[in-house]
Design goal:
It contains 4 helices and 5 strands, in the order βαβαβαβαβ. It has about 110 residues and is of the alpha/beta class. It has a single domain, classed as DsrEFH-like (Hypothetical Protein Ychn, Chain: A, 3-Layer(aba) Sandwich). Helix 1 packs across helix 2. It starts with a strand and ends with a strand. It holds the Pfam family DsrE.
Length: about 110
């Protein structure tokens, strides 16, 4: 199953750090994650030189997983030029276009 995540909750850091990323790194997540869209303060999770950002960058490099930060969210936080390599910024139309190229089964928000 191919899934994409919309990362929007206040608990996203914990969910990614303690559950999703370790499962993806060990190959036992149970679904192929084709993309992650980060909104609000969760855009900070894509910053360079942070543990979560660097781990996501490595997963992107290995799998081609889309890493997208909400453009307005990143610009408001003045981090649009400090995201990990491979992460881009954009809004929902960019997300739709990126996910259109994969056979997506579900979008999950956390």
């Amino acid at each position: 199953m191919k899934v994409a995540y919309v990362i929007s909750s206040d608990n996203a850091r914990t969910i990614l750090r303690d559950m999703v990323i370790p499962q993806l790194e060990s190959g036992n997540h149970g679904a192929e994650v084709v993309g992650m869209f980060f909104v609000f303060d969760n855009t900070f999770l894509l910053l360079k030189d942070t543990d979560i950002g660097e781990r996501l960058q490595k997963l992107h490099k290995e799998t081609g997983m889309i890493l997208l930060a909400c453009d307005q969210c990143a610009i408001e936080r003045q981090i649009e030029n400090n995201l990990v390599q491979g992460a881009t910024i954009g809004c929902f139309p960019v997300l739709y276009g990126a996910l259109n190229s994969v056979e997506l089964d579900q979008v999950i928000t956390f």
